[in-house]
Amino acid sequence: MIKTATNFIVGFFGVPESTSASRWKGQGSTLQAHRIKTVSLGSSKFCELFTEEDFEAFEYGYDLSFYGDCGLGSPVGAAQGLGWVREFVARLSQTPMTVFDSNTNSTLDGSNITFPLDQAFYADAAHEVSILNALAALNLTALSPAPLDPTTNHKNHTFSAARIVPFATNLVIQVLECQPSAPTKQIRMIVNDAVIPLETAYEGCKHDFNGLCAFDTVVAALQKRISEIDYEHDCFGNYSVPAFGTVTNGRAPAA
């Protein structure tokens, strides 16, 4: 099992560095094996090798990595999720896609056979990094209301990769007809069974105990968000990568 887990890790993260690497890097490789074995078998003897402080440091390292590489703390986080948000808004508005200026497939998304717009239920599958890109493009600021500190684990930060994009993470977006609501057509977003507040993400959404916001308000806000994301600049522009923690909207700085 250990050999299988090691091969799995190497496939995703590359061959570990030499044994002269720092203690943290050595710990990181072993902790990688631990987490995969625990998920696969329910437990791991690797646990006994580490202290609670080691596990907290390992977890926070992943928080920093995911936040800064893929989330709202990344200058390319929103751009890399732009294509999916374009698809999502096309489905919501039942409007065929005509703009293909990011990471969408014009052959598939331009066909009503491979990209239908009249379905009651849609399901997409992706890696956790792609889901976090989508969350950044959706501008779900409630998931990370403040930037992480790269020097200290304050332990009370909101952004937690283990909770937002764990194994088998899921994002559910519901369009609901709620008779007491006005207007009756509403949207809410749920990440791993947690309802996400939308009032900090979209102009016009108010605090709602059930996480609901008017359908038209969310669609309009997402269309505005799409217009603000410059895929070409964020992904390929000539700009200096800002210091960690200075990006909080998933966007690159102006050139």
Report on this model:
Helix 4 crosses helix 6 (128-137) and helix 4 runs antiparallel to helix 8 (215-228). Strand 2 (185-191) and strand 3 form a beta hairpin. The longest helix has 19 residues, at 23-41. It is globular, with a radius of gyration of 20 Å. Residues 15-24 have low confidence and may be disordered. Helices cover 41% and strands 7% of the residues. The chain is α+β, with helices and mostly antiparallel strands and 255 residues long. The N and C termini lie far apart (49 Å). Strands 1, 2, 3 and 4 form a 4-stranded antiparallel sheet that branches.
Q: Structural class, from helix and strand content?
A: alpha+beta
User: Helix amount, in percent?
Assistant: 40-55%
Mean pLDDT: 87
Main pleated sheet: 4 strands, antiparallel
Number of extended strands: 4
Form type: globular
From N to C, what is the helix and strand string? HHHHHHHEEEEHH
Q: What's the helix count? A: 9
Name the beta content range: 5-15%
Task: Measure the end-to-end span.
Answer: 49 Å
Q: What Rg, in angstroms, do the CA atoms define?
A: 20 Å
Question: Which segments are poorly predicted (pLDDT under 50) over 5 or more consecutive residues?
Answer: 15-24
Kindly list the characteristics that best describe this protein:
alpha+beta, globular, 255 residues, 9 helices, 4 strands, 4-stranded antiparallel beta sheet, single chain
